[in-house]
Structure formats: C-alpha cells, structure tokens
Amino acid sequence: MDQKISFRPEIDIRLLQEAGIGLSSQHTIMPGFCDVHVHFREPGFGYKETIATGSLAAAHGGYTAVCTMPNLDPVSDSPGHLRLQQEIIDRDACIRVYPYAAITIGQAGAMLTDMEGMADSCIAFSDDGHGVQSEAMMREAMLKAKALGKIITAHCEDNSLLRGGYIHDGGYAAEHGHRGICSESEWRQIERDLKLAGETGCAYHVCHISTKESVSIIRDAKKSGVDVTCETAPHYLLLDDSMLREDGRWKMNPPLRDASDREALIEGLTDGTIDCIATDHAPHSTEEKSRGLEKSAFGIVGIETAFPLIYTYLVVPGVITMEKLEQLLVYNPRRRFGIPLGNDYSVWDLTEEWNISGSELLSKGKATPFDGWHVMGRNYLTVVDGKAVYSFAGDL
C-alpha cells in the first residue's frame, strides 16, 4: 500500500515570520499527519477532552486530520447524534476532524445502526472499545458497508477470553498478582473477521494490533487477497510488559504485550503488513488515571508525542526510514480512508531535543507512559489549508 501522494505545499512565508521561524536548512517541512484513531470525547465527556482541546493537541503533534471514535454520549449511532457531533466539530475544530459512526446501537452489539442513514456523514463504521461479538452481526454489517462503499474499522476483542484481565497475561502479571488479558482475545476475533471480509468483499481495517499472531494472520490475509489494512500505535512499538509500572499511565487496551510481540510489530512495519501508525489518543481525567493498574481507566494520550517518539527511536537508529514513517503517518491512512492532504503541513526542527512531560501537553489528558523520555524533533508550526493552527511561539 506504500504509495506516495504528491505533496507540494504552498509555503506562506508570512506565516513563518509570524511564528518567529526563519526557514533554514535546520527546518523540515512535513506533510500533515493523519490519525485514523482518536478519542476527542465530545459530546458527553468534555472533562476528559473536547473537540477544541483535542484538535489543538493534534495540531501540536503535526496532525492536520483525525478520525474520531463514536464512544460518546450520545453514541454516534444515529443521523441525529452524528449531526450533534458534527456541529461541535464545525464550531470548534482547528484541524480536519472526521467522525466514525457506530456499527451497533449504543455499541451494545445487539442491533445494527442505520448505516444507510449515516453513510454520507461518517468516515467509516466502528464500535471501537467493543468487539462485535456476534459473527452473524459482523457479517451483516460488512455486507451493508460493502454496499455503501464504506470501511468497517474493528476493535477486535473476544469478551469470552478476557476473564477480568486488565494488563497482558505475561510475566509482569504473574509476578505482581495481576489478572491478565490473553493475546488470543485479540487475534482470535481478527481471524474471524478476516474470514468474513474475504467472504463479503468488505473493506476492513483493524485497530491497534498488539500481538505477533495478529501480524501473522493479517500478513497471510493480505497475501490471499483480502481487502484489509491495519494500524498499531507508538506504545506497542516502543514498550512491552517488562517495562510496566504500578501506575495508571501504563494501562491501555489492548495492553502492552511481550517483547516478542513488539519485535513482530516492528517487522510488520518494515514488510508492509502494518499500514498505519495511529495513536488511539484516549484522554481521561487525572483522577481516572490515578487508581493504579487494576482500577484506572483504559487509555493514554499520544497525539502530541507520536512523531518525535517514532522519529527518535525508530528512524534515527535506522530501524525504519523517514520515507516509511511518512507512509505510515501521512499517505497510507489518507489513501485508505479517502482523506485529502490539501495544503496541510508542519514545520519541524528535527535536531532539537527535549523531554516529554505529561503536565506540559495541550491535551486535557496528561497520562503518558513516555513521561520523561528524551526525544528529538520540535514542531514549530502547523498549517491547515493555508491557515496557521498551531505555533510553538503561541499568539495565533
């Protein structure tokens, strides 16, 4: 899928001057990043994040387009609920924000939504946060999505295999008395859905894969002609369960897996099995993330730190190339979901070094396992459709 979209931004020197940037050889112009998996929490959970704060955080990270998941209040499971979300986006977003619509009503898995009525107003369909447990329900959803020309984007999780777990069922869980989530709970449902995607011809995208089995199953499905793409997230590429701490900043779903899973994910990046890096940016309040591994809410923030982390720890050491990173963050997600690039770009100094601090992030959520990590790459300006939406100097 690694095919480059033509990128010829029209650089407005006035915007650079207003941001205090004297464009030089130390600056790198990056095409606007695209994240197909974020949670901006509005409507319903504005204390965690809002469209305004989430889109500004995205702009800080160099992102100019994002796709927001439907686990809101009300859930984006009807044309009216989608309109409510779109009104907030139109009013408050500083970047391009594309909402998902739910596959099932209330994301409860019991009844399909009015997919026909929402198809023109959503980027794709997803019950993210919940795996669709019924095979018959997923088959019907895929058939409808195929007829509508839309993608099914799936959070794959077999509830029957969770057994009350909240971190990976590995060494750390055993040593510290925690209940584990087995890898099979993810890859078993991916296996089921890929069979259905092959039968129905539906375009299918797998959210945040975290296991070596998932990589292998998707690789084989691609070879057999199934219309499948997938994503992983920076934390699955750079962390594993041996690094866990007794802190809610380390709790996400899927959980951090074994080092062998992390290695397989990196191999999946290099051989093209994994198409996109998405952040699964999932902000919560400080209180919700302060209850330890067992009781904290699932989810971490990541949209402001994704590029510096991957650049520093995968590109600089030569694990992947900068061109590959652009494919993963820019071109592949846009091509798959039909999201235009336009005159969207960010201006980086890739030589500048800094330490990540959760408390200094622009997102309302501050929980990141990368707190204190040393990174290279500072974003000085983000431009969407020729308009500056973030400046490191402020005062836009």
Explain this structure to me?
With 396 residues, this protein is an alpha/beta fold. It has one domain: Alpha-Beta Barrel (TIM Barrel). It has helices spanning 13-18, 51-60, 79-92, 115-118, 135-148, 171-176, 184-200, 212-223, 234-238, 259-270, 292-295, 306-315, 322-337; strands spanning 27-31, 33-38, 63-68, 96-99, 152-154, 167-168, 180-181, 204-206, 228-232, 276-277, 345-355, 374-384, 387-391. It has a 4-stranded antiparallel sheet with strand order 1-11-12-13. α3 links the parallel β3 and β4. α5 (135-148) packs across α7 (184-200), α7 runs parallel beside α8 and α8 (212-223) runs parallel beside α10. The protein is globular and about 60 Å long. It starts with 12 loop residues before the first helix and ends in a 5-residue tail after the last strand. The model has no long low-confidence stretch (mean pLDDT 95).
